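Exam prep: given the inputs below (a chain plus NAP), describe the expected output before reading on.
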Amino acid sequence: MTDNQTKKAATDFTRRRVVAAAAGGLATQALSSTRVSAQEGQTGTVLITGSNRGIGLRIATIYAERGWNVIATARKPEAANDLKAVQANHHNLSIERLDVTEDEQIAALVDKLKGQPIDVLLNNAAILGEPNQQNFGNYNFETFHKILDVNVAGPLKVAQAFIDNVEQSEQKKIVAITSGQGSITTSRGSSIVFYNLSKSALNMAMHSLAMDLRQRGIIVALISPGAVDTDMMALALERAGANIPLLTPEQSALMVIDMIDKHDLNMAGKFMAHDGKEYNW
Ligand SMILES: NC(=O)c1ccc[n+]([C@@H]2O[C@H](COP(=O)([O-])OP(=O)(O)OC[C@H]3O[C@@H](n4cnc5c(N)ncnc54)[C@H](OP(=O)(O)O)[C@@H]3O)[C@@H](O)[C@H]2O)c1
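Solution:
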């Protein structure tokens, strides 16, 4: 094994341990979320960005299992093997190409889905960016612009493009997956600052949109998924040399969906965590 392989194996092992530890305490909460949603039995159409891996994949899978019409989008549908595996057993899930930074792809999907109501428009796609390029003294502004393009402009473009589909639906929800890292009140330092400020900006964007769209009966939600064991979190922890208890993508997805189910106009525009707590901005 090379040094790097050894380091990665150690990191993977520690991640698995902290996930297992977190899982014990959170399993009951996740199961109770399953029951609540199952009782409500509400279905509809959901469009999810970045649904080929991580939290987005789990959210797409759970909605498909619950009988929703799932429009699962991915930058590279041809390589979305996990999504294809879900689709093999769930014909209510379709896979569409969507890079949220590509205007032509957004326009093509809008065209294809014209007249199709979308109950939940779920802006999940995001990038962390290389953490080492977000350190003072080593700022890389190409990375800065790329992060803002995907994490802030992306959800705004998607919301604007599919607004007619959302307005035509029963549930009328636009959801953005944010992060506790976007809270200025609780921020403790400047690591991954570009990513953090992209989530603060996303919060402001969606909070403003929530106020603007309220009169049209559209609910705009901001939901943080918790600290979750995904590729994104692995990169953040590896670069920080840190370990924290993590949720599995399944646990997080169940709680995020539960929060989406619960959202009404009274909750619109608030900065909510997966477990129902409200964040300070
Ligand atoms: N994991 C956590 O602990 C955590 C904590 C707080 C918030 N979040 C948020 O939760 C959401 C999901 O994160 P995750 O942890 O599941 O991340 P992930 O595993 O890195 O997955 C990110 C997804 O976004 C997609 N994506 C990236 N750029 C895109 C673009 N330009 N257009 C469309 N899709 C794009 C990726 O597609 P490709 O496979 O093609 O790259 C992938 O499907 C993000 O909004 C993230 O900020 C995560």
